[in-house]
Amino acid sequence: MQSEADHVKKSIRTYVMIGAALFVFTGITVAVNQVHLAVPFAITVALIIAATKGSMVASVFMHLSHEKKWIYGSLLLTAIGFALVILLPLFTIGNEIGTPIHAGHAAVEHAGR
């Protein structure tokens, strides 16, 4: 029975520490918002803070830190898929969809008349 009580105390201590860390990171989020950074840098900092807070919640409060390896594999696959979907617009910057194929040729014909 003693070991079970120690386990409960350790779990409560972990929850309180993660709760305090989430509180601190929320304060950091508010402080960073008051600094008025450039938009791309502000988004990067906000995403780093949010990812840190989310990983703390998922690993401790959702008990993913005690799960099997295949759970981490599925989470990694999800993160890779999310990154690909987010980065997909970067691959379409040089895309020529919507531009006429013969725009230059038509201009030359029109100028020759």
Number of helices: 4
- Which residues sit in consecutive blocks of at least 5 with pLDDT less than 50? none
State Rg. Answer: 25 Å
- Strand tally, please? 0
Largest sheet: none
Q: What is the strand content?
A: under 5%
Helix fraction, binned, reads over 70%
**Shape descriptor:** elongated
Global structural class: mainly alpha
* Rounded mean pLDDT score: 81
N to C succession of SSEs: HHHH
Q: Tell me the distance between the termini.
A: 98 Å
Please describe what this structure looks like.
The protein is an all-alpha fold. Helix content is 80%, strand content 0%. The chain has helices at residues 2-35, 39-61, 69-91, 103-112. Helix 1 runs antiparallel to helix 2. It is elongated.
In short:
The protein is mainly alpha-helical and 113 residues long.
Secondary-structure blueprint of this entry?
Elements: H1 2-35, H2 39-61, H3 69-91, H4 103-112
Keywords:
113 residues, mainly alpha, 4 helices, elongated
